[in-house]
Design a protein that fits this description.
alpha/beta, 13 helices, Endonuclease, Chain A, elongated
């Protein structure tokens, strides 16, 4: 990561563009962070910034929080206000705006993909570390097609086969990030109960466990089982996903999924709390090798 005494320079922007190229959502977050950094460095409040683009303080807040997609004219006007004149820097910002407005690959599944889930996919695409704890189901990034289909049939009992097939296709497409040369590290802790839920029947579960064993042997996948026999493993009774990025502009993000919605947390005091919960679970759970042995000898 380039370092500079200036808030934003060309090498920094080049790094951000390259590091978040796969995720328009990540780029929007980076762009918002950089605009806020430049505004603060220029000593300009959000109200004055809003007036400069014929808008309100609220719009500046939404732009800086990546709650809206930025328009090129607005960004260029703000950069002028903040004293940014370097042509290379302006060109990189223009490219960042353009790329951040592009739809991610997952948008072709909009018919079955709620907005709150699309954001998770975009963040996972840009993450360097994905930590997850599951209490009922195999994590989506580690599911087999047959297991995913069984899960979808339970979750969407009235759906037609065509819709189920599309949902399975989407989940399999999400898993391709683990096959990239720059794949994120996936660290999953599974409550033992996950292995006792016979989703799809015995054959589907046996195939799923074999897949877990295969994935757990990859260098960038860490898999641990939190067994019933260790009381400390019930520190959290709900799924947790913690995302970390190789992008200083992006803070850690915690994703908490609910039945028909999800919550994203990014305040350090919140993400630090959930990271400590995951640390405690990992410490209390079986080691990766013990977990692999359990899968091979008792569930395989």
């Amino acid at each position: 990561m380039p370092t500079s005494a200036r808030p934003v320079d060309a090498p920094t922007l080049e790094y951000y563009l390259a590091a978040s190229a796969r995720s328009p959502i990540a780029l929007r977050l980076v762009l918002g962070h950089l605009l806020r950094t430049l505004r603060k460095a220029a000593g300009i409040d959000a109200e004055a910034a809003g007036r400069s683009i014929r808008a309100s303080e609220a719009k500046i807040s939404r732009m800086e929080r990546a709650q809206v997609t930025c328009k090129l004219d607005d960004v260029m006007d703000l950069l002028a206000l903040y004293g940014v004149s370097d042509s290379q820097v302006l060109a990189h910002f223009a490219e960042m705006v353009r790329a951040s407005r592009q739809p991610g690959w997952w948008h072709r599944f909009d018919g079955v993909l709620p907005d709150w889930c699309g954001k998770l996919i975009g963040l996972q695409e840009a993450a360097s570390m994905i930590r997850t704890y599951e209490v009922q189901l195999i994590p989506g990034l580690l599911q087999t097609p047959a297991y995913t289909e069984a899960v979808m049939r339970l979750g969407y009992p009235l759906a037609q086969q065509e819709e189920i097939d599309i949902r399975v296709e989407l989940r399999m497409a999400r898993q391709t990030l683990l096959a990239r040369s720059d794949a994120p590290h996936l660290w999953a802790v599974l409550d033992e109960a996950v292995l006792h839920h016979a989703i799809g029947g015995e054959h589907v579960m046996r195939e799923q466990v074999h897949h877990l064993v295969k994935m757990a042997q990859l260098d960038h996948v860490t898999l641990q089982i939190a067994p019933f026999s260790r009381p400390a493993c019930v520190a959290a009774g709900f799924p947790i996903t913690h995302l970390r990025f190789n992008l200083p502009a992006l803070p850690d993000i915690v994703y908490l999924e609910q039945l028909r919605d999800a919550e994203y947390l990014n305040k350090p005091e919140e993400t630090d709390h959930y990271r400590s919960v995951l640390d405690g679970l990992a410490q209390a759970a079986l080691s990766p090798q013990e977990s692999l042995d359990l899968l091979e000898h008792h569930f395989g």
